[in-house]
Design brief:
The complex is a heterodimer of chains A (279) and B (556).
Chain A (H helix, E strand, L loop, with lengths): L6 E5 L6 H15 L2 E7 L4 H13 L7 E6 L3 H11 L4 E5 L6 H6 L2 H8 L3 E5 L11 E5 L4 H17 L3 E8 L14 H26 L6 E7 L4 H9 L4 E5 L7 H5 L3 H7 L4 E5 L1
Parallel strand pairs in A: 1-2, 1-4, 2-3, 4-5, 6-7, 6-9, 7-8, 9-10
Antiparallel strand pairs in A: 5-10
Chain B lengths: L2 H27 L4 H12 L4 H4 L1 H7 L5 H24 L2 H7 L1 H24 L12 H13 L3 H10 L6 H32 L4 H33 L4 H20 L4 H13 L6 H26 L8 H25 L4 H11 L3 H13 L5 H26 L16 E4 L4 H11 L8 H14 L8 E2 L2 E4 L5 E11 L9 E10 L3 H14 L3 H6 L6 H9 L2
Parallel strand pairs in B: 1-4, 2-5, 3-5
Antiparallel strand pairs in B: 4-5
The chains are: A alpha/beta (279), B mainly alpha (556).
Chain lengths: 279, 556
């Protein structure tokens, strides 16, 4: 079997979580048997270089086992550009679970990476120095071709992690349903429709699983009716997922996608747990 | 209000609600929208019927020029605001963006074409369209253009639900396009009202439009986020559903008051607040339904009955005008939306069906007409024609859509089959039957049949495709544009390792486009869903005629 990820990139700053992020990425590097590139945005000078080397040593990482890229410019753009140039196929970064009111519109470095990075991205919400393995994997699918890759890659990841749980989630809704109540419908009828659709979707999920041929770990399926992205995120949060995987956006996300929620924007806005975006 | 007026007012409300419910239910029983019955109830209670038969009773129940009328008008205005509020709640601009090109093109064409048709005809032939005031020719033409371009989401949604296509691609496109249509339609109408009303409030047209856009931007950018933050607190700490209902209504009325203040009608404020509130993921389906029920059972019937009370439908019935408006409305929407859908890759029949689906006007047209009537923009005969058009388009939408969707290729598994694709066979193993079925498919070129066979067999070796109840669905994804299928009814059972251990006697070969997992899953689940009842499946074995077999298969 080919490697899931062959080159990891870590966006590193001198923040309090820097050491924990290094520990996490070191564990993943070993797990995937991958190369490691550290990307730091800032001017390379003696003080900062020494500071970064100290941080790396404190994390117990051999300086010879990694490459350091010093990038300049707007942090978000610089990280994305440097990781692309370095051939990184999994970019790791830390992020706060929630963004504040204005940040949501203005955007932050982490959200920019989530939205625009060319490679797969792993966003760690609460990196820990113990770097525990991910035990509970939750993955969402819309049956799109990109989702097949997301599910299979996440599944391979889960197998490597010797995960305890792998849950495949399908959340969907058909907006406008409630309005049928004004158009002579009834709440009972809409409820019945929703139940029928969820049951149909569950059957479809079973067939989907057969097509994907995932073996080695039992897969649970969960169909949820509600706002796409929001429902799956909430379900993962409530069930204490360690990792939530989703396909990267099919097109470049714009301001309008934030204004009128794109599915993935619900997840970016309020990260359910550590988020793996497969591209 | 004097005590005797209070008594009459309460009596009027009771009679209106009772008659509305009676006719609403009656029309529901004959599979027609309840609003048709409710408007019919108004016509019976109003000057058209009761006013003719017993003017004394009519004048007693609905006295003109009294405080009772003021109170009833107040309720009607509230109802209109609330209908627009819930209409906004259902607008999900996220799905319009998600649906992308097809929904937006269909929505845009569903506005531009009917608008130009209505505007052009009304401007060129204003007297044929029953213009009220010649000096208002431009505004009148603008209104008629808007009136013909609006769609009614609730009626459309119910039609899609009844046709069982709500959760299909076509249903999704129609709903998205209708939402987009609603937003643009109400924006244009508000601008028209601003052109008339702004001056009344001492604001110039430019100022009114600027304020409107600022209001919409602030509401969608910030108030929307604020509602999203507040809703969980309200749901947690206040009683359900009172707390949420209260919050939505308060914000809706505040928005309505603001837009009324700046010279745009109150409905626009309510509509935009509705969009902002409806966007919140915290507003659950259950809460939405409670809001809809509250308005549907009390305010909507009162509003629809009041339509019949407002106008004498017989005295103001103008057949040529009705026919012109009907012709323009059908031509505008069906051609406009149809072209929009066709240009983005839908088939001819699908495009026409989408056009008829979008042609339902229902509630929204009537609200629009009533407001124009109140503003003195249109004559009562135009209003009557618009109401008739709204009802007629809503009633004929379902049968016309159904007609054009019938036999649509790829719509369901059965549509993929024809008697030539059914075979009665006597094979002994899966290789033979699969090879035979692939060879029976004329759409697969001969030089590719071996490759397809290998692909299907590779799939079989990984996980066998026996489902249950004597059914097996060997399948593969290959380079084709549309799915194809062939069926073998085999004399002997063949082991496809079905879960229920039964050998398979009905073998359905299914080949789907390699980049479309969705269509494969849709068809697989549809076929599996058909074969749930073993007894009925076993009855299929007795048929020896291909047409008869296909007919019974479709009825499973």
């Amino acid at each position: 079997m080919s490697k899931i990820f062959s080159k990891l990139g870590l966006a590193i700053t001198f923040s309090p979580t820097g050491k924990a992020l290094l520990k996490e990425v070191q564990r993943l590097q070993k797990l995937f048997d991958a190369e490691l590139v550290l990307i730091h945005v800032g001017e390379k000078n003696y003080d900062d270089e020494a500071k970064l080397n100290t941080l790396i040593s404190q994390a117990g990482i051999d300086l010879q086992s990694l490459t350091i890229v010093w990038a300049s410019g707007d942090p978000g753009n610089a990280i994305i550009r440097s990781s692309r140039e370095a051939g990184v196929d999994l970019l790791v970064a830390g992020a706060l679970e929630k963004e504040n009111f204005m940040r949501y519109y203005i955007g932050s470095v982490a959200r920019k990476i989530m939205r625009e990075a060319a490679s797969s991205t792993l966003i760690l919400t609460s990196p820990a120095e113990q770097a525990p393995r991910f035990k509970r994997f939750f993955v969402t699918t819309d049956y799109e071709p990109a989702d097949e890759k997301t599910v299979t890659k996440s599944f391979q990841f889960a197998l490597l992690e010797n995960a305890e749980e792998f849950v495949l989630i399908r959340d969907f809704n058909f907006p406008g349903l409630s309005s049928t109540i004004i158009g002579s419908g009834s709440a009972e009828e809409t409820q019945r429709m929703r139940e029928t659709w969820v049951a149909e979707e569950e059957e479809r999920m079973k067939l989907y699983l057969r097509e994907l041929e995932l073996t080695g770990l039992p897969v649970k399926i969960k169909c949820l009716y509600g706002k796409e992205g929001w429902e799956a995120g909430n379900y993962a949060r409530e069930n204490r997922a360690d990792l939530f995987a989703v396909s990267g956006p099919a097109k470049k996300l714009k301001f309008m996608d934030r204004l009128f929620h794109n599915k993935i924007e619900y997840l970016f806005e309020n990260l359910p747990t550590n988020l793996l975006i497969i591209r | 209000m004097a005590s005797e007026h209070v008594v009459v007012f309460l009596l009027s409300i009771s009679v209106m609600l009772f008659t509305a419910k009676l006719f609403g239910e009656l029309f529901n029983r004959i599979k027609q929208p309840a609003i048709v019955g409710e408007i019919f109830a108004g016509i019976i209670l109003g000057p058209t019927v009761l006013g003719m038969i017993s003017p004394e009773t009519f004048n007693f129940l609905f006295p003109q020029n009294t405080e009772v009328k003021v109170a009833l008008d107040g309720i009607t205005s509230l109802a209109v605001i609330m209908l627009l509020l819930v209409s906004g709640i259902e607008v999900d601009l996220g799905i319009v963006l998600k649906q992308g090109k097809t929904a937006v093109t269909t929505g845009v064409m569903g506005i531009i074409f009917p608008f130009l048709t209505g505007f052009g005809f009304s401007y060129l032939f204003p007297h044929h369209m029953g213009i009220q005031d010649e000096s208002m020719r431009f505004v009148f033409a603008l209104f008629m253009g808007t009136a013909l371009s609006i769609s009614a989401l609730p009626v459309i949604a119910k039609t899609l639900m009844d046709l069982k296509i709500f959760n299909t691609q076509i249903g999704y496109i129609i709903i998205s396009a209708a939402m987009f249509n609603d937003l643009i339609g109400w924006l244009i109408f508000s601008i028209i009202l601003g052109m008339i009303g702004g001056e009344l409030h001492g604001l110039g047209f430019g100022e009114t439009i600027t304020l409107t856009l600022v209001f919409a931007a602030i509401t969608l950018l910030f108030v929307r986020r604020l509602i999203h933050k507040i809703l969980p607190w309200v749901q947690k700490n206040l009683s359900f559903p009172g707390g949420v209902l209260n919050l939505i209504l308060i914000l809706g009325f505040l928005g309505a008051a603001f837009t009324e203040f700046i010279g745009i009608h109150a409905i626009f404020g309510a509509f935009i607040i509705g969009i902002a509130a409806g966007d919140s993921a915290h507003l659950s389906e259950r809460t939405r339904e409670v809001i809809h029920q509250f308005i549907t059972n009390i305010f909507a019937p009162l509003f629809f009955v009041s339509i019949g009370l407002t106008v004498n439908f017989i005295a103001n019935f103008n057949l040529p005008l009705v026919l012109i408006i009907l012709a323009l409305s059908f031509a505008g929407k069906v051609i406009g939306c149809g072209l929009g859908a066709y240009w983005t890759g839908m088939s001819k029949n699908e495009s026409i069906a989408i056009g008829f689906g979008m042609n339902s006007r229902g509630t929204m047209e009537i609200i629009l007409g009533l407001l124009a009537l109140q503003f003195g923009l249109i004559h009562e005969s135009v209003f009557v024609a618009l109401v008739i058009m709204a009802l007629f388009t809503s009633i004929v939408s379902a049968p016309l859509m159904s007609h054009f969707l019938k036999g649509k290729e790829g719509r369901s598994f059965i549509d993929l089959l024809s008697p030539e694709l059914i075979s009665f066979t006597s094979f002994k193993n899966k290789e033979e039957v699969i090879s035979y079925l692939i060879n029976s498919l004329s759409k697969i070129p001969d030089n590719e049949k071996d490759f397809v066979f290998d692909k299907v067999m590779k799939r079989e070796k990984l996980i066998s495709t026996g489902i249950a109840n004597h059914l097996a669905i060997p399948h593969a994804k290959i380079k084709i544009k549309k799915p194809v299928a062939a069926v073998a009814v085999n004399e002997y059972g063949i082991n496809f390792e079905a879960e229920d251990k039964f050998d398979s006697r009905i073998i359905i070969l299914l080949l789907t486009p390699e980049d479309d997992m969705q269509i494969q899953l849709k068809l697989l689940s549809e076929i599996a869903g058909k074969f749930k009842n073993r007894e009925r499946v076993e009855q299929l074995f007795s048929f020896k005629d291909k047409k008869e077999f296909l007919k019974n298969l479709s009825e499973l």
